[in-house]
Design a protein that fits this description.
This protein has helices at residues 42-49, 72-78, 95-102, 111-121, 123-127, 138-150, 168-183, 195-201, 219-223, 226-232, and strands at 4-13, 16-26, 31-35, 57-62, 65-66, 80-83, 156-160, 187-191, 204-209, 212-218. By secondary structure, it is α/β, with parallel strands linked by helices. The strands form 2 sheets. Strands 6-7-8-3-9-10 form a 6-stranded mixed sheet, sandwiched between helices. A 4-stranded antiparallel sheet has the order 2-1-4-5, covered by helices on one side. The longest helix is centred in the last third of the chain and has 16 residues, at 168-183. The chain is globular. The mean pLDDT is 91.
């Protein structure tokens, strides 16, 4: 059984039909990429999965439990963490305070161990732990947003455009960390406009276009698909 199963999801913004019968699944241990152009519905999909947007119809099932109508804070308790587009760190709080916010579902006795683990993933955050988060660079804020999400010890991590606005150096670092997180046993659903990077680390991928899944397959196969190359890889 899939860890996450999205079935026939329809979502509207007022009269605008944003998602049309979107269906896909993510199996335990996989990195699954959801790629597509701006406005394709990628962020809408993640927001619906994590309870930030209501579905008109369809279902979201996580580890056998229907979470379609669950509010976002309850979904975090079930083992799902969402790193939103644009990072959304608490700018006036320090790095360490931001990380603590990510652990609100966890027993206090586990906090120190989780903090140590996140600082091992992201040594740069350890160096800046007492710094106000709003003063960090874009890449450092992305690391902080990911670290904060990992503090809840998620079974699945949903990442929305982690490379957006970052220098090539930071993009490389972020994707290496995603691979490490996956290797550590966390399942990953990755929404990413940088299709080449996403497909290079994913196991499987789905292509979203104007609210419809138009193609799916093994990531390596899609990397070599002529129509994908032309539309999304700039080749």
């Amino acid at each position: 059984m899939a860890m996450l199963e999205v079935k026939d999801l329809n979502v509207y913004y007022g009269l605008i039909h944003a998602l049309h019968d979107v269906s896909f699944e993510v199996n335990e241990g996989e990195v699954v990429a959801l790629i597509g152009a701006n406005g394709a519905g990628k962020t809408t999909t993640l927001h619906t999965i994590t309870g930030l947007l209501p579905a008109k119809s369809g279902s979201v099932v996580f580890e056998g439990k229907d979470i379609t109508k669950q509010p976002g804070h309850k979904i975090v308790h079930l083992g799902m963490s969402h790193v939103p587009e644009g990072r959304r760190v608490f700018a006036n709080l320090t790095v360490e305070e931001n990380l603590r916010m990510g652990a609100y579902t966890r027993p206090k006795s586990e906090l120190a161990g989780s903090m140590k683990e996140v600082y091992e993933w992201f040594p740069r955050l350890s160096e800046r732990k007492n710094q106000a988060s709003g003063t960090l660079s874009g890449g450092e804020q992305q690391m902080l947003a990911m670290g904060r999400a990992l503090m809840s010890k998620p079974r699945i991590l949903l990442l929305d455009e982690p490379s957006m606005g970052l220098s090539p150096l930071f993009v490389g670092e972020i994707f290496k960390i995603i691979e490490k997180v996956s290797a550590g046993g966390t399942t990953v659903l990755l929404v990413e406009q940088n299709a080449k990077k996403a497909l290079s680390i994913a196991d499987r991928a789905y292509v979203l276009e104007t609210g419809n899944i138009i193609k799916e397959g093994q990531a390596a196969e899609l990397l070599n698909d002529d129509s994908i190359k032309k539309a999304y890889l700039g080749e």
